[in-house]
Structures are given as C-alpha cells and as structure tokens.
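If you are new to this repository, start here. Below is one unmodified record pulled from the training split, so you can see the exact layout before writing a loader.
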Amino acid sequence: MTVRLYQSDAYLRTFNAHVLRCLPLNDHYAVVLDQTAFYPTSGGQPHDIGTINEMSVVDVYEENGDIVHLIMGTLPLGSVHGQIDWQGRLDHMQQHTGQHILSQAFFAETGAQTLSFHLGEDISTIDLDTDHLSPEQMTRVEDRANTIVMENRPVIIRSLTQEEVPTAGLRKPPTVKGTVRVVAIEDFDLTACGGTHLKSTGEAGMIFVRRWERQRKKIRVEFLCGWRALRDFRQKNNAILHLAQSFSVGEWELIEAVERLQAEVQSCHRSLKTLKEQALDHEARSLLSEAHHQDHWKIVVKAFEGRNPEEVRILSLRLVHEEGVVALLGAVNEMGRLFFARSSDLPMDMAELLRVTCEAIGSGGGGGRANLAQGGGLPNQEVYEALAFALQKLTS
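And here is the target side for that same chain:
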C-alpha cells in the first residue's frame, strides 16, 4: 500500500519516491509510487495536481489501497521527484478546514448535521439535514464560525482506536472500522476525516456563506473560505463601486437607486403597453376602412413583413372584435405564419379554412377553433399565395 505522506504533513510540497508500477491507461500512464504527497479524490475533496519528474499529474485516485497518479508520459522504475501545486493544496485545506468549522457551527447554533460536503473548483457546498434556515440563524452561524477563525485555534490530527470512538465525542459516527483518523479543532469540533487540513483555524481566513437553498428535505449551503472569499469580496466590491458610479450615488444608496430605476422601468412598460394597444386599435380601424366588402361583412387581408407574429395575432383579434369581420393575416419572417379569425356573429370555420388553404398550396400546417386558427412552417413567398387562396375561397 502507498504510504500517504500528506496524512502526516499536509504542508509537504516536494518529496522523493520510487516507481513501483507504470502502465499505459488510455492516453496517459498510471503510476504507483511507494509513497506520495499527492492527495487522491475522496471525501468530497478533489485530488492534488502537480508534477512527477516535471511531468504533469492530471488525476490522482485510490485503487485497492494504492494511490494511482495519471501522468502525461511514462516513467522508468526507480527514484523520482514529486512536487504538488501548493496554491491548489492550500486552497483545498482552507475550504476543507473551513467546512469543519462551518459544519460544527451549524450543529451548535441550529442542531443541523452535515450530510455531505463537496469541494468544487469555484464554490464549495454542504448539505444539511434540515429544510429551513432563517437569515437570522445563518448570521449566527457565520459569526460563530468566524469567531473560531479569529481565535486561531489549533487544528490537530490524531488517531483513535475502535474502543475510543464511542466516548470521544465525534460530531458524526465514522464510516470506517479499525483505527480512525480524526481532525480536532481545539475545544470546538472533533470529526473523522482523511483529508488535508490547516494547522490552525486562522489560516482559513474569512468564512462566507454565499447562498443557500432548499432541495427537497435538505438545505444546500454554498460557502467560500480564505483566498476564495477575498476574490469574491473583491469582485462584488468592484461591481458595487462601478454601479454606484454609473448611478452617481454612494454605494450605500445603491439599493434605493436600483429600486427607483425598477419603478421607472415598470412605469415605462405600462405606458408602452398602453401606447401599443392604442396603435393597434388605430391600425385596426385603418385596415377596416380598406377591407374587402362581401355582402354584409368585411374581409381584411394583409401580410406583414418583419413583424412580430404575436403582434399580428393580437391585431387579428382586434379586427374581429367588431361584428361582421374576417381577418386573413400573415407574418413574413424567417418562416411564414398565418392567422385566420372571424367575428362571433359569422358562421365560417377558420380552422377548416386554414386546413384547406395549407393543403392547396402544399406546405405549412396548423389548427385552432372555428373563430381563430393559426398556422406556420410556410416559406415566406407562400404566405402571399395562402392569403390569396383563402380570400378566393371565402368570396367564392
């Protein structure tokens, strides 16, 4: 079994080892060493990256007690030199130690236990066995967690025998048998864990809960620690300052300015809707004045190029709001659309007329009711043919 150097020294950046096996695996080589500082993916924490003899390590995983390193080239049996990516390791230790602090803070303040943990590339998450958390509770949890950070309590790794486990006061029962590796945050938390952790809580930096949401019967919490939290704060601060400058207000006035702008936009939308309705009414009256007269009723026929099809549909309904009107309208855009409508006092079946029209010109299709039918899928030039055929059909 591979000796796991990271378990005794998580701050180890370089190491020497011997290659035991190096076998081709897809486009890479799977390398097993007698000892390694590379952490394999497990327990919600992703693997380390780095180099072995200056060849990139792209994946690290456990297999039958050995730790397998996937590298970009082959290695001969014998001595090699490994180097992990320190910034990546430090980031993982900040997030993982921060998770221990945050999970215990949730348990202490709300009684919620952590069900699972995932350390993502940008965001880390924990799932809690509760379906409700108030903003006030979250504030208390954050304050408790950051108090532990500021007190810079030592983080100690030790082992417990199976007999010691029941009385040790672990936050959660361990899932492994035999000797259990535990992470102890002085006078605060004790958890079984095989991951890499900081030497003291102060190194975790600020712990920040970014957001949380309910997922079925649990709560998923997104959080950031250390450098991730600083980068997130810097990005948000820059955005706030930029927006405040755009509105010519102080950042403390930004919320009020945005709310004021939202109210103005909603007012403009209402005014625009009213103006559009008035314009459609005016357009409907104009079209009716130019309509084909057939006995005691009128037929409006028109194809609109580049017009929003939904506006054309609404216009057809505006036209047939008056008695004795049939509207045969088309929209010519990327594909042609047809809208056939009639007033409630007329007997024609618009759905049947649309069906017959599409059959006659050999393209398109649709459906609807007797008073309103719509279709599509026509080449643009055939919209005009369809309208001409439908007019001829009605007038004959």
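Two things worth knowing about this chain: The two ends are 91 Å apart (CA to CA). Helices lie at 5-8, 86-110, 135-150, 226-247, 254-289, 309-319, 350-361, 380-395.
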